[in-house]
Design brief:
two-stranded antiparallel sheet
Amino acid sequence: MGERTQVLHRDAKEQTPTLSRVAYDRIRHEILAGTLASDQPLRLEALRDRYGLSFSPLREALNKLQAERLVTLSSKRGFRVAPFSLVDMWDALDTRMLIESQAMRLSVANGDDDWEGAVVSSFHALEKSRQRLGMPDVHEAELVNLEARHQAFHTTLLAACPSALLLQLSATLYAQTERYRRPLLTMQTPETVSANPDDDHRAMLAAALARDADRAVELLCEHLRGTGRFIEAAHARRELAAA
């Protein structure tokens, strides 16, 4: 095998996701979407049948998700989806505000022209998806696309932050809060369809482009608090309906 062939083979192998990564991505996606419900058991036998993967990559994926607090583990109950807790949701949101406030300040201070263009582009993509959400017969794929663009916008706003650790913590906390919000979108509840956070996003965009870090941070925290109040109100309405 020639040197160039070896390099190409190695590069292709590195780009192929491992089985544990496949397991992690699939389980994580279903937790965030609410397909795997709060406190649902995650037995290895059932997951093997569900995903067609062996125990080893599944166990590795579950351990990683436990580290991200999306999964719990106890000696008596085994692995389970982390339970629904408004206290934990607000804890994650409050911590996210602390982390992302600093990341936002650093991103606004360090962002260049390419960063500005990426932020504008990500907002435009999010806005187009949000507009399609109000159309009749919205497919689940469009909801998934909306969420991907929503995360991309928030990630791009912080992308010029030079601290890799702040960005890693932000991504972890984003997942912990999204698991409470995202199922409300995928189920297309009335309160979700009527919610329109585009004004928040537009205001954050304007503040970031104006290099007004204080205002951008203020708007970000208001947006995240609004997300928490929205989740709390939606949960209360669903509990009332169930009663």
